[in-house]
Specification:
With about 250 residues, the protein is an alpha/beta fold. The chain has eight helices and ten strands. The structure holds S-adenosylmethionine.
Length: about 250
């Protein structure tokens, strides 16, 4: 990029949602006005195909030479390009503030005196259950939902006592710990569970099971990341209601 420091750059964190169709109008507008786009592995690549030819794209998950940039390196790039006067878009899968380290990027920009704004996106925590016909709240069934990062070394037993829907992100490698924790915390083994893999992507797959069978089913289907894991009665609620309507 040029060393033009006459104009002031700007950073916009844009939530890309789970697919190119599910980005917001404001997000798409920001993307179309970008000089530099720093993107993530989980962003739908179709969003990058519509960019002007002169837009500089950095794939933060891969480049350069398959080196996965650290968060500090990404923060540095955001500040560097903005200081060169560029309109920088940081494009992130889902929503930037849902396990997306968007807060750290905002702080890094502000600490460097760089203007930064955030355009929210549709998080996979919401989009994946919608795709599977699962309302995360439903009157009389679940009055709350809790979104949990399964990678945060949490004690999963504590979530057994939450009276609502549980939505686990980054949970594939932790599934056995999740099941063990919820069961030992008192959640019934009959509690419905859904796996939604690669929602809106080419590997999209929806699997319904129950807590007691979840680990076995995950092995049988070879559950793959990215996946959202839903635990709670909402998993089957629309099916159950429709079945009872048909039976009446
Ligand atoms: C680092 S978190 C980022 C979450 C993202 N900021 C969001 O709001 O969706 C990555 C996790 O999000 C979930 N995820 C993201 N995209 C997904 C998709 N298309 N299908 C299923 N799960 C997805 C998976 O649990 C994945 O491991």
């Amino acid at each position: 990029m040029s060393n033009n420091i006459d104009r002031t750059g700007h950073v916009t964190l844009v939530g890309a949602g789970p697919s190119a169709d599910l980005i917001t109008v404001a997000g798409l507008r920001a993307l179309r006005a970008a000089d530099v786009v720093i993107t993530d592995r989980l962003v739908d690549q179709a969003l990058l195909q519509g960019l002007r030819d002169d837009v500089y794209v950095v794939e933060a998950g891969k480049a350069p030479a398959m080196h996965k940039q650290t968060q500090d390196e990404i923060n540095h790039l955001l500040v560097q390009y903005a200081r060169e006067g560029c309109n920088v878009v940081r494009l992130k899968g889902g929503d930037p503030f849902v396990f997306g380290r968007g807060g750290e990027e905002v702080l890094a920009c502000r600490a460097a005196g760089v203007e930064v704004t955030v355009i929210p996106g549709v998080s996979s925590a919401i989009a994946a259950p919608s795709l599977a016909d699962i309302p995360v709240t439903h009157r009389g069934v679940a009055a709350s939902f809790t979104v949990v990062s399964a990678q945060s070394r949490v004690d999963f037993e504590q979530f057994a006592h939450i009276d609502g829907t549980l939505v686990f992100l980054m949970g594939v490698s932790k599934l056995r710990d999740i099941v063990r924790g919820l069961a030992s915390g008192g959640r019934s083994l009959a509690t419905p569970v859904a796996f939604i893999e690669d929602a809106y992507g080419s590997g999209e797959r929806i699997t319904r099971t129950c807590l007691g069978d979840a680990a076995v089913v995950a092995t049988r289907i070879s559950l793959q990341s990215p996946a959202v894991i839903i635990v709670g009665d909402v998993v089957n609620v629309l099916r159950d209601v429709m079945a009872s309507v048909r039976a009446a």
